[in-house]
Amino acid sequence: MTRPKILVTRRWPEAVERKLAEDFDLHLNTPDTPLGEEALRAAMRDYDAILPTVTDRLSAAVFAGGAVRTKILANYGVGFSHIDTEAARAAGVVVTNTPDVLSDCTADIAMTLLLSVARRAGEGERELREGRWAGWRPTHLIGTKVTGATLGIIGFGRIGQAVAQRAHFGFGMRIVVQNRSRVAEETLARYGAVQVGSVDELLPLCDFVSLHCPGGAANRHLIDARRLGLMRKGAFLVNTARGEVVDETALAAALRAGTIAGAGLDVFDREPHVPDDLLSAPNTVLLPHLGSASRATREAMGFRAVENLTAFFEGRPPRDRVV
Ligand code: 8YV
Q1: Is residue 91 part of a domain?
Q2: Which sign, positive or negative, has the C-alpha torsion 217, 220, 226, 227?
Q3: What is the full DSSP assignment across 89-124?
Q4: What is the pLDDT of residue 181?
Q5: Distance CA 210, CA 205 (A)
């Protein structure tokens, strides 16, 4: 039997690429740069499977024009708002993702941002490296105490719960949750969490708000100027979900006006572009989409995608099918 012809759009950890080369007719996109719409359209006609990442915009145009050869998009990552799932469904293309394996590392980055922005670690590091540190003084770089504060978690799936575990057990934080469906009582009880009915209800209650909902059209600008106005004046926003969930212009304005105290962001609306008004906004810690970036996690994500691909081509249901 001929081996399925597959395209890996960005370079993956070596061990995973080796495994893919054993089992499939593997094609790597070199150099390791994002593919544009035209290249993705052509790939859909050339390959049995494509293994995309967040840098591949698989819009409706990529699926349009009929005669698609690709039968499965085995996405490298849990979030898949870069794939037009309606267009995939209409074209009969299966989509899978890689949940679970990146929850811990993404939650770690959310806590890194929360702690860094609350305790002004980014500002402090820049001051020290730039030779501006004039020595210890009682009033220098005074931040906000994290232990015992209230954390609002929007989206209480696997990553949201991993954040709750760290915040509740590690930092004695009180947890308030908003989720699109009702969370089981025993799950809430595990973290001493309370679920509220809406984002509007959650925001005024919290010292910190961390976003863990999906991206995509449904949640675009979920945090907009009006909702930023509902946050406490001394509160902080953390985003490790998707850039489009936050209106970046409104966020920069709120930071500048002091409506909220700070923001820690790992994701941006038009990555790798970061708007100037966010770069220059006060009290921000900005990271280049590092959520899942540990060796163990990136390998586990790759092997999870291999598992999905193998199941599909062996005629079994892939474990992580989302379309
Ligand atoms: C990935 C992520 O690195 O899994 C996700 O949704 O945001 C990141 O952890 C990225 O999506 C890779 O495609």
Answers
A1: yes
A2: positive
A3: HHTT-EEE---STTHHHHHHHHHHHHHHHHTTHHHH
A4: 98
A5: 13
Structural domains counted in the chain: 2
**Domain enclosing residue 14, as ranges:** 5-101+295-313
At 65 the pLDDT is: 79
Asked, for residue 320, whether it belongs to a domain, the answer is no
The CATH code of the domain that includes 276 is 3.40.50.720
For a pLDDT cut of 90, what percent of the chain falls above it? 98
pLDDT of residue 1: 67
160-175 residue pLDDT tens: 999 999 999 999 999 9
Which amino acid makes up residue 64? A
Q: Which residues of the chain have pLDDT under 50?
A: none
**199 lies in the same domain as 271:** yes
Q: Report whether residue 76 contacts ligand 1, using a CB cutoff of 6 Å.
A: yes
Residue nearest to atom 10 of ligand 1 (CA): 77
Q: What are the tokens at 51?
A: 């293994």
Which of 35, 78, 100, 105 for mutating ligand 1's site (highest number of atoms within 8 Å of CB)? 78
Give pLDDT, residue 67. 84
CA pair distance 94, 292, nearest whole angstrom: 24
Looking at the fold, whether 119 and 237 belong to one and the same domain comes out as yes
